[in-house]
Amino acid sequence: MVKVTIDGVEIEVEEGTTILNAARQAGGDIVPPAMCYYTGLEGSGGKCRSCLVEVAAGSERDPRPMPKLMASCRTEVQHGMVVKNKTSERVIDAREGVTEFLLINHPLDCPICDQAGECDLQDLSFKHGVEWSRFEEEKRTFAPRDIGDKIKLHMNRCIMCYRCVFVAQQLTNKRVHGVLNRGDRSEISTYIEQALDSDFIGNVIDVCPVGALTDKTFRFKSRVWFLKPMNAHRDCPTCQGIATVWMFGNEIYRVTGRKDKYSEIERHNGKTAWICDTCRFETKDVAKWVIEGPRIINRYSVISTNHYTNENPLDAKKDPKKLQ
Amino acid sequence: MGRKLLLEHINVPGIETFDVYRKHGGYSAVEKALKTMSPEDVVEEVKKSGLRGRGGAGFPTGLKWSFIAKPEGVERHLLCNADESEPGTFKDRYLMQYIPHLLIEGMIVSSYALGANLSYIYIRGEYMFVLDILEKAIAEAYEKGFLGKNILGSGYDLDLRVTPGAGAYICGEETALIESLEGKRGNPRIKPPFPAVKGLWGRPTVVNNVESIATVVPIINMGADEYGKIGTEQSHGTKLISACGNLERPGVYEIELGMTVEEFIYGDDWCRGIKNGKKLKALIPGGSSVPILPHYLITKTAKGEVRNMSYESLSDGGFATGSMLGSGGFIAFDEDQCIVRNTWNFARFYAHESCGQCSPCREGTGWMDKVLHRLEHGKGTLRDIDMLEKVNKRIEGNTICPLGDAAAWPVAAAIRHFREEFEWHVSNPEEAQKHNFGLSREVTFS
């Protein structure tokens, strides 16, 4: 066990834990945002730079501060490390910078985007963004594309987190999509119009932090905050069958994996509970699911506004302690 | 003329062939190292010589070598970084094209020092013709028993291969180079772990610049003490400088570190001054990614001392009034050159070459390119100049690899020293569109 201090909160974690995971174990508002890191995907993280933190003391043995801001999702904690996250002005400035950079080429089409309401980029810009943009240039654009018969790709919204590439690499037996080109013209794409087709490829939709990859069986059917998320399970030969179904009345509009408060699929029975494409796209009959009960959603999330609380979520902005 | 160690025999006809190279003392370093020295001795010798990496960062080569992890039963690799893509730098190509056996000799000695049995030269895709030259030279070295099994009866085996890249600047970053060599997309890895611990195929790896590896040959031949006497206190030995821009005689020169910048630009043996008798306006001393120096800071530092061609003198005054020796891409600008246009050109280059992996670099470089394009074409505002500075600060240091820094530094330095020229572009949009020389015509030079 090693002892680490994050924003004055002292916590003991196992050796080899990253700063981000240590902060998550401590909980509260000292957790840095993560747009590209995903616990269940090996090798993810380090790309979006929104989780940058300042390491004020490297370790007990070598208490020198690290000169550069470190990506907390990929930096392992050392005994006696002192980390500054929200208490460091440098970190806040860098994070505002990252938010600005992620948004300059983003179409800002939240009103018509299916991810709106459960989008990590919305959360990030709510916390660290500004109301106006300094970017006056023309945005770079791509045409929306069908990749596979159930998945739509809106490359304009993509933040290049590479999560979907890792999903295809690690969950399915063949990867037909990847990153093409360089710089701000780089795009997620298949090689010569191939379709994404595999039992678990639908998980790229769940891991996508923005609305770049959306479910074609749910697109434009409803806003997520009009739906009620319910925990449900079924006997599935391919996957664990543990999912969240999003219902309107007695109808299932869509099926997703069970996401925790960091937008990551929960672990069940010692494994990440990825769901298969049959559960996700083809099992929308209520009779086929065992509904366990309502899913607990963060009370300040827009999804829970109409369901569980009378509080205005905008109040949370005035009191940052309430935001997680 | 100063002393020449690398380019001593460059003008001998046929030096690219094994026999002529051998006749002029070639491969004596291999003989000396393999027959009389242990690998540790070679590392110690290079450490003692004070050789600093010639690729740009200037990290001591011997120190880098001593960091390599040596777990039992795991192979180690030496990679030669010949992906020389920095605008203004062409010294490695010159070396490889005209005297390829020097690099091969350096590779043998360095691989021996590190205990590597399989080494690679990673060459940029645009240097296809150099690849042919190198492959021919390697075939000759195999034939004469300097590569392959049991070199010179010492029991040391080495295989040397040349691999071309596909023309990406980012593959000159060491971890991106390793990824590319493994056959993947050339994205830099997130460090740590560093290549010295986990590099090519997860094995300990050292990546060195062409010139650093070639310099090991004279160090072994003449001994570290002798080599250390050349140069200044902190910069030892000689350095290849690729001079270009508005110079009377551009080209690749081997200089002793510590000669004055003034002599290098105006000396008869060197660049012979500025072309067409014009005045020097600005200078980039170490390739496009180092800060630009205005005319009043070139020959003298801010403190009034004479500026030398050495690591410490060129970086005197930090980034506020200094620059860096970098990779030795020496670019001179005469009074007719437009700094805004040049800065935009560099920004465009970095926007094109950013790998697109991390957000500050991917989006920031593209943004700077667009804003500078607007400024250059007379459509900018004064606010844009301040904004560029702020965007710069948010890119610098927040990226995975140094490309973000390399893109931010030249823009920051250009605005720092030539702000009035940027402002001239804003206030005279029509003239800025008509001419490309900016304010320079109206400035009187000291």
Please supply descriptive tags for the structure shown above:
heterodimer, A: 324 residues, alpha+beta, Ubiquitin-like (UB roll), Alpha-Beta Plaits, 3 domains, 4-stranded antiparallel beta sheet, 16 strands, 18% helix, globular, B: 446 residues, alpha/beta, 5-stranded mixed beta sheet, 4-stranded parallel beta sheet, 18 helices, 43% helix, disordered C terminus
Write the layout of secondary structure elements.
The complex is a heterodimer of chains A (324) and B (446).
Chain A: E1 2-6, E2 9-13, H1 19-26, E3 52-57, E4 70-71, E5 81-84, H2 89-104, H3 120-128, E6 145-146, E7 151-153, H4 163-171, E8 177-180, E9 187-190, H5 203-207, E10 213-215, E11 228-233, E12 242-248, E13 251-256, E14 267-268, E15 271-272, H6 277-282, E16 290-294, H7 315-318
Parallel strand pairs in A: 1-5
Antiparallel strand pairs in A: 1-2, 3-4, 3-5, 6-7, 7-10, 8-9, 11-12, 11-16, 12-13, 14-15
Helix pairs in contact in A: 2-3
Chain B: H1 18-23, H2 28-36, H3 39-49, H4 61-66, E1 77-82, H5 91-98, H6 100-114, E2 118-123, H7 128-143, E3 159-164, H8 174-181, E4 205-209, H9 210-222, H10 224-229, E5 238-245, E6 251-256, H11 261-266, E7 280-284, E8 293-294, H12 311-314, H13 318-321, E9 329-334, H14 339-353, H15 359-376, H16 382-395, H17 403-427, H18 429-434
Parallel strand pairs in B: 1-2, 1-4, 2-3, 5-9
Antiparallel strand pairs in B: 5-6, 7-8, 7-9
Helix pairs in contact in B: 2-6, 2-9, 3-6, 5-6, 6-9, 14-15, 14-17, 15-16, 15-17, 16-17
Describe, in plain words, how this protein is organized in 3D:
The complex is a heterodimer of chains A (324) and B (446). By secondary structure, chain A is of the alpha+beta class. Chain A folds into three domains: 2-101, Ubiquitin-like (UB roll) (Roll), CATH 3.10.20.740; 120-131 and 138-215, Alpha-Beta Plaits (2-Layer Sandwich); 224-322, no CATH class. Chain A contains seven helices and 16 strands. Chain A has helices at 19-26, 89-104, 120-128, 163-171, 203-207, 277-282, 315-318; strands at residues 2-6, 9-13, 52-57, 70-71, 81-84, 145-146, 151-153, 177-180, 187-190, 213-215, 228-233, 242-248, 251-256, 267-268, 271-272, 290-294. In chain A, strands 2-1-5-3-4 form a five-stranded mixed beta sheet, with helices on both faces. Chain A has a four-stranded antiparallel beta sheet with strand order 13-12-11-16. In chain A, helix 2 (89-104) packs across helix 3. Chain A is globular, with a radius of gyration of 20 Å. The model of chain A has no long low-confidence stretch (mean pLDDT 87). Chain B is an alpha/beta fold. In chain B, 43% of the residues lie in helices and 11% in strands. Chain B is built from 18 helices and nine strands. Chain B has helices spanning 18-23, 28-36, 39-49, 61-66, 91-98, 100-114, 128-143, 174-181, 210-222, 224-229, 261-266, 311-314, 318-321, 339-353, 359-376, 382-395, 403-427, 429-434; strands spanning 77-82, 118-123, 159-164, 205-209, 238-245, 251-256, 280-284, 293-294, 329-334. A five-stranded mixed beta sheet of chain B has the order 6-5-9-7-8, covered by helices on one side. In chain B, strand 5 (238-245) and strand 6 form a beta hairpin. In chain B, helix 2 packs parallel to helix 6. The longest helix of chain B has 25 residues, at 403-427. Mean pLDDT of chain B is 89; it is low at 439-446.
